[in-house]
Amino acid sequence: MNYKDLNIAHSYISQGDNNIVDAFLNPVLKYTKEYKRSVGFFSSGVFEAIADGIIGLAKNHGSMKLIASPQLSEEDAKAINLGYEHRNQLVEDLFSKDFVEQLEGLSDVRLKMLYELIKDGVLDIKIAIVSTTGIYHDKLGIMKDIDDNKIAFFGSPNSSYSGYRSNYEKIRISKGWEEGSREVVEEEEAEFDNLWENNNKFVEVLEYTETAKESIIKVIEKRRGAILSPIKLRDYQEQAIAAWKANNYHGFYVMATGTGKTWTAIYSAKELVKEHPCMIVICAPYKHLVKQWSEDVDSAFPESTIILVSSENPGWNKQISDAVIKAKYDSKQQIIIISTIMSFNMEKFVNSIKKYEGERLLIVDEAHRFTKRSEELKTLYKYMLGLSATPFSGSSAEKGKELMEFFGGQVFDLPIEDALERKYLVPYYYYPIYVNSNAEEENKFNYQSRVIASCFRGGKCIDPDKLVIALRNRLRIISMAEEKQTRIDEIIGDVSERDHFVVYCGDGKLFNESTGEEIRHINAVKQVLSRHEFKPSQFTARENIQERMDLVDSFNKGEISALAAIRCLDEGINIPSIKSALILSSNDDYREFVQRRGRILRLYEGKEYAKIYDVVVLPSEASTQWAAIELRRFLEYGRLSLNWDELEVDFKSLLMRYGITENEVDVYDYEETEVEEDE
Fold first, then answer.
1. Does CATH place domain 3-222 in 3.30.870.10?
2. CATH for the stretch 235-421
3. pLDDT tens digit string along 397-411?
4. CA atoms of 439 and 270, how far apart (whole Å)
5. What is the tens place of the pLDDT at every residue in 84-130?
6. Which listed site, 207, 350, 551, 632, has its alpha carbon 20 to 30 Å from 97?
7. pTM to 2 decimals?
8. Which residues of the chain form CATH 3.40.50.300?
9. Is the CATH code 3.10.450.50 the one for domain 428-665?
């Protein structure tokens, strides 16, 4: 496709559906190989608005040339025009001051992207100053696609976030292939090129790209070096890698959530390719985990070709083919492919991988989700590594053993008990918050229990689909218990932490009596958080990958004080700054308990301990099945908490109340279900 295939209008405004960013810049940049932009003022915050388009430009091996002007005071302008001895340095310093301020407002992801664009020669920046006391204030854009079609656009917005998103701005478009427009486009491009080459007698243009790169590095270094610096492995990570190597580069790491499975796997791969160059294929269950893996892999393998395979990147097949062809002529080229499990299982993906003539390593994250395993994979991948904090889950002990044997057997184990004792995770307090069920809810629960029982005959399940639905329905009754909702203001109001707070919500809806309409549980929770002066946002499957990563970054920085989530925060996603979490909704799932706790207990600067608040719904004494479901979570979270001594008294009292034993509570007899892998 090229510009002619796009439905490009002759003007756009910054507001509404037909806005400058979403309707014009981002879609057009994805087909652009050359972007020339001159503006009166530049903010690096523009990359928050047009990041998707810039990524497309980079994938096209394109370039962006930017001319911008510093904001000069009258004194600055006079100093420059009076022939100040170091006038060029003064101009650069004035521009740098604003530039660095904008950089400090960027997320880690955007900051790294800006650095990579400059480092790779995609983005080149120059500064324009006029020879009078005025400022350079032109606003022009020239774009050229892969077939040399050109567009010129002019108008009011500067290259800033507010210029594209907040203000009311308008641009007008000239298309070089339309009658009467070619001359306009060529004239404007000639004007830009003269400026770029510093051939305009009214404007002086100075180099700035190297200074921009240095400024970005300084800002990155302020942020704990987390973006570009290599990781320092802990002793147990080194032990895991040594065990995997000793097992002929095969095996399974069982590591408590939050202890660094990802980095252990990445450095395992680095050790392998030192001795045995090979293609690296990494498989993860969710798209946001694919993105998160790519950022870590990129810092460990900075010169590699990284290809992301999911519905977010429809061109992955061609990218793999191109990389394979290139590898034939460049044996040092490291190919790393990161795929969702869903895409990994596609025949098209398997065929693409087979084109590579060398050896291959397969790394599977959250490997308990990797259910479609075949012997053919062992032929296709000479080296294998599986990762999970929870290969065993409830009644699936045998399945867990089979899973680990597929990868070559368990070679390393770091349970949460050891991780807490050795201070690889922060200790935590557990606070159960008791609410009561009502008679109607218990009746519904008992009905679903009878449906579940009807799915079995002679000890065997005869209707698995019906069973899954009934199990979910029964858990939803507990999840959406009325007293949870009526007391939500009180519950959130009693939380002592006012920042870095996560709330796990249900996936159901509530009836809003004031509006007479239903509202999603997560939206109702956000409203309550706002009333209690949190700055909340949601983290769900509805947000795209980049939005999720930006939310994580804003949360870590404290710009967002609370995240409301349903299931997306259960596995893999790294948010180490979480101080406390409120569990309003939960499945009867050991893996969920473990994964959520691991999210909360990650080490973070200044974080000495964490808190888990858990709303436990207590039924009447006759509803022992209901009680067992809620007390199972109580036991799992409570037993390793700092305050277990006092909690254990409550726990044993509740066991006596319901006439059940700890062994009955500690048995997970649910039927495991799959999640949507490419969520």
1. yes
2. 3.40.50.300
3. 667 788 899 999 999
4. 59
5. 556 677 777 777 777 787 777 777 667 777 888 888 888 898 888 87
6. 551
7. 0.65
8. 235-421, 428-665
9. no
